[in-house]
Amino acid sequence: MKTQVEERFSEFYEKWIYQLEEHVQQLIRVPKAKLSEPEDSELQALVSRVTSHYKEYYTVKWAGAHEDVLAFFCPIWLSPLENAYLWVTGWKPSMAFQVIDTLKKSVVPCASMVDMSETQVKKIEELRLKIRLEEEKVEREMERLQVAMADRKMVELARLASRVENGDVVGRVDGLVEVALKGLLGGLEKVMKAADCVRLKTLKGVLEVLRPLQCVDFLAAICMLQIRRRQWGKIRDSQKENTSAELV
């Protein structure tokens, strides 16, 4: 049974991914030859539309998480393959730098990343280090929340809940558990937003370093990875369903 948040966000995500595919088609149709200044402006407008699309995703996500944060830690709108690659409810920021490294080694003619200047490379490396430190900060906070589930208060509540039989006492214990869980869920919402902010900061930082055509190639690669992973996950789920049907 889906919760209201799961129902709403599943519907939103399907539309959002469809629109992302349309943006990707525009990105990959961009000519790879040297562009004039007016054409650079058009590229910047295209890049802005894609980043606005991602910002919309996080705006809707945060609103949904305020109602039901757990829905985003085990999202039903993603396939098991997609879920396997999640880092605190989304893509890991360090992945962006791996994408840049891959594009820099591209053998495709006119690949814009191959022409990165020394200054750009230095700035990207500085950003990589900064983002890694922020990732570690989020990971430490997530670990603290996980360990908090076994702190003295939670352990005593769990033991007490298994022993009480009186109806009034059970009600009071349930109330204490609810308060304790509310605190933990609030912590999860906070760490999820912190992780999302690192993701947005990574995108912003990378795009500020790259030239317009490089931004286009970078966003096309990042978006395509997300879309392909979703397609591969659906194919795998379909194959499993067919196998299960054959065994019945």
TrEMBL record:
**GO term, biological process aspect, one:** DNA-templated transcription
Enumerate the UniProt keywords alphabetically.
Coiled coil
Q: Does the keyword Protein transport apply?
A: no
* The keyword DNA repair is annotated on this UniProt entry: no
Q: Which residues form the DOG1 domain?
A: 6-239
Q: Which PROSITE patterns match?
A: DOG1 (PS51806)
A GO MF annotation of the entry reads: sequence-specific DNA binding
Q: Point out the coiled-coil segments of this chain.
A: 121-151
The protein's matches in PANTHER family, at most eight in alphabetical order, are given as:
DOG1 DOMAIN-CONTAINING PROTEIN (PTHR46354), PROTEIN DOG1-LIKE 4 (PTHR46354:SF2)
Protein name from the UniProt record: DOG1 domain-containing protein
